[in-house]
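Hello again,

I reread your note about wanting to compare the complex against the isolated chains. To keep things tidy I'm splitting this into two emails, and this first one only covers the full assembly. Below are the input lines as submitted, including protein chains and any nucleic acid or small-molecule components. They are followed by the predicted structure of everything together. The single-chain runs will come separately.
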Amino acid sequence: MGRAGVVLGIEMSRLARTGKDWHHLLELCSLSGTLLADPDAVYDPGYYNDRLLLGLKGTMSEAEIFLIRQRMLGAKRAKAERGELILPLPAGYVRRPSGEAAFDPDEQAQDVVRLIFRTFQRLGTLNAVLRYLVGHEIQLPVRARSGPAKGDLEWRRPTRETLQNMLRNPAYAGYYAYGRRQVDPRRKIPGRPDTGKVVKPAGEWLVMLPGRLPAYIFEDEYRANLARLAANQQTAESPGAPRNGEALLSGLLRCGLCGGHRMAVSYHDPSARAAYGYTCGFYPVNYGTGDRCQHIAGPALDDYVARQVLDAVAPAALEVSMAAAAHAENERAALDKLWRQRVERGRYAADRARRQYQLADPENRLVTRQLEADWESALAEAGRLEAEYQRFAEQTPAVLAPAERDAIRSLASDLPRVWDAPTTTRADRKELLRILTDDVTVAVEGDSEIVNVDITWAGGHRTSGRAVRPVGRLDQLSYYPALLETVTRLAGEGRTSRQIAGTLNAAGYRPPKRTAVFTGQQVRNIISKHAIRENAKGRPAVLTDLDPGEWSVPGLSAELGMPTASIYNWIYRGWITARRAPGGRNWIITADEQQMRELRERRDRPPGYYTRARWAPPQAETGETQKEGQGGQP
Ligand SMILES: [Zn+2]
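Full-complex prediction:
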């Protein structure tokens, strides 16, 4: 506004710490003719010499602040590289007055941390650990970092995020790590110095020194935990944590037809539990064209792989039973210890409250009233803990009873029973499958019911086998020719369809859906569909001696892919040339290539094509159709 004549400052270059602000000020002053003054001189930014000097002062100042910051950060980094920079410690550690980190002297705090790592190893997901802790009322030991109670142990309810931070924290494996979170300037929010921190992957940390802290877990355990957390995420690369969906092999299955792409689970009907299958949609999904490689109904394949796995682990039954018994007792002992510590803590708190109350001057009612209330609530809490512990001890006896041991032993030797038990969840089964197998590659043989299954076991060993899937049509079956031959032969021998069904079942043939065995009705269908007909005497006759250009009704029906009823309809309408076979009721159809082409065209027209053309009111669009329709009719 041109009202300021001079801007005075003790050290002008300190006015701004960035060149941008400084030059902005110079520009404004030179435009409005304002002077700048510091203890050294008065400057007029409109003059070349003064402006040059002021610009230099600004540059010096910027360089100075940069140097100071650089030196500070460099010193901090150098200290961290020596492992001497004091970093906040996670739960389960305390810092001694001398500055070194040590295990938390509180026994219960240590036990809880150990329990969390052990439980994650056993259960495998954060969610399961969290539910376990909540179910057993286990809280996390945290040393207060600030406030009046700084350094005191606080018990906080576990959260998913805390657990995740614990499992990811390399301190528990003894590492001194600095720079796990680094500042990304693009994410900073102006005016909030703590913002913009980004968690970096392990390779990009600034400092990583092994063996600087007492360790709760071994290094390979830490890496295994990280790998497990990564594998639990459901992405294209990792199968994700096992969930309670029906499909056992979800995430494990690879397609053997297109080079091992992961197969997806598809549920046909959410209300039917067994209606799911595995599909490889690599080409349609990634190229937008082409057919899916293969589709396999789920339950049959799941059963096959499950049996393979159960057979594989059967020899280890005795070891499993011993380990399971020991594990049950260990877990019980760990929980019991935590309970006893909790009870002891409650008793101590009550005792301390009592002593505080007794030490107070009885005349000072203001203080004693509060202390009395504290003592009462501490006593109530101690009583509650003891009662809870009592209940826990009654529910879970310290040593397994002989009957329980026998139960474990018998279950271990009868794994299929455990597998099928209603208390075994789908997630349990998937977990077992994933422990034992790396992946399962499947390839359907042609269009048939046979599926070649390659199992890669954990450790790399591979076995191959064949599973059988249900197929939709009889002629997809690999034994279709043999089946047809048997039926024709037996029908020729004059057997009834029920007898034939019995023979087929005894020979191990199964109908395509694999839901049951062959019945007489199904055999009758096969006989009628495949031109094995019975003549008037009840003797079967087969139309085999057809010339080229001649067809049986079922033969033509199969060739054109339409029902036999339509073929008969067409014969009666006269659209097909046919004559009776000598001595029988069978039709023999003659159709040369030209006629076959016409029949195919006729078949491809939509249903109701002729009737609609006849009855629809004359319209411009339908006029042509009508003509063609009439022309097509004889
Ligand atoms: Zn595929």
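For quick reference: The pocket of zinc ion is lined by residues 255, 257-258, 261, 280, 282, 293 (CB under 6 Å).

B.
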